[in-house]
Design goal:
Layout (H helix, E strand, L loop, with lengths): L10 E4 L3 H12 L4 E4 L17 E5 H9 L3 H5 L4 E3 L1 E6 L5 E4 L7 E5 H14 L3 E4 L3 E6 L5 E5 L4 E3 L2 E4 L6 H6 L3 E17 L6 E7 L2 E7 L4 E9 H7 L3 H16 L2 E16 L3 E2 L4 E3 L5 E2 L7 H17 L6 H31 L3 H15 L2 H11 L7
């Protein structure tokens, strides 16, 4: 940690989830004071408790970042599942498999609440982070240029820079006047945690099945999170009957993993949303994570994009003076928007392409899978990208 920037007003971060808490630690490690607002901090984590439905695939570049912050060892010491292979296929087609290089894992499956708990715990211990369990109320700016965040406890906090990490329905984004563009996919994501009779390999996979996508995230040798992206109304109807849901899932997953027992389930609507600009010059504030970019979870890239926002902030602060810090972060977030747009619309194209019944599109899909199956060097490259290893150097 470099010399503390005593003369600067603190950074304020609204939202202490995975991305917000990581941003708070990152900025504090660069010597800046941070006020972190999180009205609902995570409670103690019990490694013997049932798995939560909210799971993230953490890739190598973000593991390196979490190691730098000193939190990763605390995470894997409690509960995390490595995965060594990613496989995709069309229904009844051949598997195309991607693996890490030299025996290195592609990543780890981690429960969001565990990662949030560890990050928040480190924030509370950091001498430059003031962790407050107050919510966000509104922003204010005086004629003299003084900018303040007002909390739910009616406290006004003057700040040098502001970051909203408060999710897709961001109140900070609205207060900053940052517009969004996007649309609903008219689909829901169904999440189901199961216990299996057979041993599961350390492999995550996706099957494109006409108008549905089926996926599996390994959690232990006998536990997994089953995922289905399908019609919004169909998923909602299934949620009303555990018996119907069980039969529906068995039809789709038993051929891949054998018999299983449902432990918990839930679903949420899918929507693609991108902020038009991630920074307000007049209010010296911006948004990161889902507040800036909510993408299709098809490739599990949501949280990884958020962590890469934080990487961009870290790099910007590392190479600037204290007086340039706010400008450097603004520039970094604007630069990050290009990658976020590319990932968001790229996932849209993949989702639409694999659902298309147009003969030419279907021919292109089959040619793509056939080509990948015959090109191990290309599969190796994609595996390194999927595992974040090209970005972790």
């Amino acid at each position: 940690m470099r010399h503390v920037a005593e003369r600067m007003k603190p950074w304020v971060i609204v939202g202490g989830g995975m991305v917000g808490a990581a941003a708070a630690l990152t900025i504090a490690e660069q010597g800046y004071r941070v006020v972190l607002l999180e009205p609902k901090p995570e409670s103690e984590f019990d490694p013997q408790s049932p798995h939560d439905l909210r799971i993230s695939a953490i890739t190598a570049d973000n593991i390196a970042q979490l190691n730098t912050l000193g939190v990763w060892e605390d995470v894997i010491a409690q509960r995390a599942q490595r995965f060594d292979e990613l496989a995709v296929r069309e229904l009844d087609g051949p598997w195309v498999e991607f693996a890490g290089r030299g025996g290195a894992p592609l990543g780890y499956m981690v429960e969001n609440k565990l990662l949030q708990r560890v990050l928040q715990s480190h924030c509370k211990k950091h001498p430059l982070v003031h962790f407050k369990t107050d919510g966000f109320s509104h922003l204010a700016r005086t004629e003299s240029g003084k900018r303040t965040v007002h909390t739910s406890a009616d406290e006004a906090i003057e700040y040098s820079g502001l970051l909203g990490a408060d999710g897709a329905q961001s109140s900070v984004r609205d207060a900053l006047g940052l517009g969004t563009a996007g649309a609903s996919y008219r689909e829901r994501c169904l999440l189901v945690n199961v216990e299996t009779s057979s041993v599961l390999p350390t492999r995550t996979w996706q099957v494109f099945s006409d108008q549905e996508v089926h996926a599996l995230l390994p959690l232990t040798s006998h536990h997994a999170c089953l995922i289905v992206y399908a019609n919004h109304d169909e998923i909602l109807a299934l949620s009303d009957s555990k018996q119907e849901l069980d039969a529906w899932l068995h039809t789709r997953f038993v051929p891949h993993i054998g018999d299983f027992t449902i432990q918990s389930s839930g679903s949420f609507p899918l929507r693609h949303q991108q902020v038009l600009t991630p920074w307000s010059e007049s209010l010296c504030g911006g948004v990161i994570g889902d507040a800036a970019h909510a993408v299709h979870p098809l490739a599990g890239q949501g949280v990884n994009l958020g962590f890469r926002d934080v990487q961009g902030i870290a790099s910007a602060l590392k190479h600037c003076s204290e007086s340039e810090a706010v400008t450097a972060v603004a520039r970094a977030l604007k630069h990050r928007r290009r990658e976020n747009l590319l990932m968001g619309y790229g996932l849209d194209a993949i989702a639409k392409g694999f659902r298309s019944r147009h003969p030419l599109v279907q021919l292109c899909r089959r040619s793509l899978f056939h080509g990948l199956s015959r090109q191990p060097s290309l599969r190796d490259l994609i595996g390194r990208i999927a595992g974040g290893r090209l970005l972790s150097r």
